[in-house]
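# nightly structure sweep
# worker-07 picked up a monomer target from the shared queue
# config: single-sequence mode, recycle default, output format = structure tokens
# input follows
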Amino acid sequence: MTIFYFSSTGNSIQVARAFGGELVSIPAMLKGDRKYWEDDAIGIVTPTHFGAPPRPVTEFLERVSLKCRYLFCIFTCGNTQAGAVSKIRRAAEGRMRFDYINSIKMVDNYFPYFNVRKQVENLAAKHVEEHLKSIVDDVRNRRRYIEGTDLYGKIAGWYMSIFPLSPNAYKRFYVLDEKCDGCGVCRKICPIDNIVMDDDRHPIIRSACLTCGACYHNCPNEAIHYRGEKSDYRYRNADVSLADLLRANDTTAQK
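# output follows
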């Protein structure tokens, strides 16, 4: 089994690991030349960004050819996948067909909308381990299932379509110079190589930003902030280390 994953704070890594098999980082894969993958079962584990797969995930689907008997996708989300299921099916239409798509509710770490500290405090109510075990069993038994979107998800998806993320959202990030020591973790952990360091070794976040939160949540000194953040609590999945995320997302090593 091969599992492709995209992760900013480790939720998708936790889920991907639960299936076993070979784990392949989507940001790392996009930097390479390989375009064909074959296995008995292939999975994609990804968060949702505004009710859709993150841009690197759709780029991955457009680029690769996957040959398998069983193709599945698992979305990690805070409360709802909000239509991301239908969007990833459309992105793959004509090239590949999913046998199983499901979502699992975890900590919503999107700080512009949610108080992340409260999300962590209320995590137990989401029964993550129980739901993850159920999904893993489904995949091992090769269950065929495509999750629908409930009324709450449709309303959330509609809201996000009416009020999409501003293309200038990246300008809302700012750095506390007195806290930044120029370590460069933010640059390395950005999954799309969108951060450069200025002459003082402080980060500059450029316009391609996904607002995925990788730099924000993983800054060792909590130097990166966002105007309008609902909390300044930093989150990384308890089962995932900073080194794990750097291995997954550091696309600067080849430069």
